[in-house]
Amino acid sequence: MENPLTKLVPQLFGEYPKSFIKLVENISLSPDQNSDEVTAILWKAYEFGDRCHNGQKRLSGQPYFSHCIAVANTLASWKMDTTTIMAGLLHDTIEDTETTLNEITDIFGDDLGNLVDGLTKISEITYSSRKEKQAGNFMKMLLSVAQDMRVIIIKFADRIHNMETIRHMPQIKRHRIAIETRDIYVPLAHRLGMSSVKSQLEDLVFSVLNPSGYKEIESKIKSSERQRHKFINKVIKPVEEELNKYEIFPLVYGRAKSYASIYGKMMNRNKAFNEIYDLYAIRIIVEKIENCYLALGIVHNIYLPVQDRFKDFIATPKSNGYQSVHTTVVGPNGQKIEIQIRTKDMEETAEIGVAAHWMYKESQSTGIDKNVKWLRELLEILQNESTDPKEFMDLLKIDLYNEEIFVFTPVGDLVQLPINATPVDFAFQVHTQVGMHCMGAKINHAVVPLNTKLQNGDMVEIITSKKQMPSYGWQKFIVTTKARNLVNRHLKKTHDDESIKLGIEILTKTLRRMKLTDDINEFKKSYNRFGYADTNSLLKAIGTGVLTVRDMFKKIRPKEEIEDKNEVNDLSSGFFDFTRNKSKDIVLDGIDNLLINFGKCCNPIPGDELIGFVTRGRGVTVHRSACKSLPLLNHESDRLVPVDWNVKSSDQFNVLLKVVGLDYKGWLKDMSECISKQNVNIASVDIKVNDSIAEANFIVQVNNNRQLDRLMQKMTKLKYIDYVERIGR
C-alpha cells in the first residue's frame, strides 16, 4: 500500500505513485528538456487531477482518475509533448468535477486551458434531441481543432480507453457508443492517417456489435499464428539477403490485418477465412526514399508482381500525409501477399498519422498541418457557412468515408478528390468561383457531361461562364463536402430570394386592393411583432404562405375593417405563368369547388402527394407534400389539411423542365423527338447555347407525374445530356 504522505510531498520522500512513475517512463523528452522539470510539472497536473476526481468511481469500480492516467499514457506512447499529456490527465475535470476553466488556466496556463476547454462537451445549450446534441458537441470539438490539432489526438486516446472498458456499461449505451465510434471516430482516424488507432477502434467496435463474429476471427487467427509466422519468415528471408548485398539492412516484419477488416472481406467477398489471401501484410522499413524503390525492384525480381495491384503513395501521398509503396506479389506456394515499403519517418506517420507531425515541443506551432487539407476545408465550412449541427454531420460523414483518386489540371497540378467525384467537384476544389460558374468540362481534351465520374490520372479542364450558376440537378452527382455545401447554400439563397420577391409582390398588391399603399413601410417594419428578425424574413414568410397580409392587418389594425373586394386574384401571378388555378382539380373530404391556390413554389401535378394549407379568408393553398416552402411550423400544424386530386385521366398539366447538355447539330431535334415519342406535347421551348453548352427550358404538357418521370428518364439517357430538372419544388 502506498504511503498517503507521498501524494503531498513526494519530492521529500522520493516516492511517487507507481502509476505516475510508469507515466514518466513513457514520456519522450527532447534534448532541450530537463527530466526533473518535466517530472515536477507533470506531477502538479497529476496531483491536481487526482484531487479533483477524488471519490469518483467508474462503472467498473475503479477510481475515475485511472481513466485519465490511461489517456495520458496513450498520449505518451504517441510521443506527444508534456502539455498534451497533462491535458490528458485533466481532460474531464471541467465536465465531471466542480473545477472551472478559470482555475485550470490560472494554475496551468492558457495553452492547457484551451485544450481542456476544447475537450469539454457543451452543457449550456438545450437541444431538441440526443443526436443534435451529439452533433453540437462534435462541432465544438472540431472548432477547437482549428486552433489546436492536439484536441482530436487527445480525444482519440480518450475514446480508445472508453471502448476498452465499455463492457461495464449497460448494453444500450454500449451499442450507442460503438455506433458513434464506428461512424465518426474510425473514419476520422483513417482520414488523419492514424492507422493503428483506426485498427484498434475497428476491432473494439467489432467486439461490441458482433461479439460472436469477433470471437470466431480471433480463434482462427490464433490457431493459424504459428503457420503464419513460418510463411512470413519464408517470404522475408530471400528479400533481406538480397537487400544486405546492397548494404541495406531493413526492418522487415509481417502484420496481421484487423479482425474487423478480415471479417468485412469475408462478408463482402462471400469467402471463407482460409480463402482470404491478404490477411496480413509484410512491411519493409528502410532509411532513405531511394532505398524504397531499390527494395521494390528486388521484391519484384524475387516474386512475380500482380498486375493492377501496385500503388505509389510516395510520389502521390494521400491527403492525410500517408506515404508508402504498395505491391502485391505471388509468394511461395502461389499465395498472394501484400508488401509495403516505406522509410522510418513514413512508418511513424502511417501508424500515428497527424500525431507524428506534432511531436509537440513547447516552441512548435499547434495549428492544422498543411498535409490535412480536407480538414482545413471542413473547418472553413463549419466556421463560416454551416450553422445546423445535423446538416454538418451529414456533410462530415460524406467526407470521412470517401476514398481518393488523383487527377490533374491542364498545367499539371495534382488534385485529390474522392471516388465518384465529377468535374463539378473538381471545379470547386480548384476555386469556389470556378465551381459556381462551371458550365462544361473536358476530360483528356474531350468534352464530357458534368456528371461524368473522374478516373485516376484524368486531365480535367473546366469551361466557365459568368451567366452559369449552380442548379438543383448538380445535387444528384456532386460528392465533395465543399461542393455540396456551396451548392446547397446558393440554392437555398436563390429559393429565399424568390420567396422574398413573391412576398413583396403579394404585400404590395394586397395593400393596393385594401387602399393602404401608403402604409407599406409600416407593414414591412412590423417584423418583430410577428417574431421575425428582419424585413426580409417577414417577406419570405409571406411568400411561402406561412404568414398572410390579412393576419398582419388584424394584428396591426385590430379595430379597422378589411377593405378587400378581390381577395385572391393576382395573389402570386407571374411567378409561374403556366401553372393552373382551377378549384375543380382538388377535393377536400369529398368537397369540391373550393377556393384554391396552387403553390407556385412547387407546381404540383396529378400523382404528386398533396397537402393543403388553410389560409385565413383565402381558401386553401395546395403544395406538394415534399415542398421546401411548405409551412410546417408547429403552431401552424392545425392549418394543414389532406387534399386529393379530382381530375380526368385525359386532363393535361403544364410542367417546366430545365435541360442542360453538350450542344451538337441536331440537339433540339433529338430532344423534341424524345418528348414526342412519350406522347407529350411541347407548349413552349427556350434554348440558349454558350461555349458548346446548351441550356433549354421546355414547358411540356403531361397527364400525371408517372408520365413526367418516364419522360425525364428518357431525356436523361440521351447522348451528352448532363441533367434534366423539374422546375418548381
Number of spatially distinct domains: 5
Q: What is the arithmetic mean of pLDDT?
A: 78
CATH-wise, what's the superfamily of the largest domain?
Answer: Hypothetical protein af1432
CATH top level class name of the largest domain: Mainly Alpha
Describe this protein's structure.
- The protein is an alpha+beta fold.
- The protein has five domains: 4-194, Hypothetical protein af1432 (Orthogonal Bundle), CATH 1.10.3210; 218-352, Beta Polymerase, domain 2 (2-Layer Sandwich), CATH 3.30.460; 373-489, Ubiquitin-like (UB roll), CATH 3.10.20.30; 532-645, no CATH class; 653-727, ACT domain (Alpha-Beta Plaits), CATH 3.30.70.
- It is built from 28 helices and 20 strands.
- The strands form six sheets. A five-stranded mixed β-sheet has the order 1-2-5-4-3. A four-stranded mixed β-sheet has the order 12-14-13-15, with no helix packed on it. Strands 18-19-17-20 form a four-stranded antiparallel β-sheet, with helices on one face.
- A hairpin with a 5-residue loop joins strand 13 and strand 14 (620-624).
- Helix 8 (110-119) packs across helix 10.
- The radius of gyration is 32 Å and the shape is globular.
Summary keywords:
729 residues, alpha+beta, Hypothetical protein af1432, Beta Polymerase, domain 2, Ubiquitin-like (UB roll), 5 domains, five-stranded mixed sheet, four-stranded mixed sheet, globular
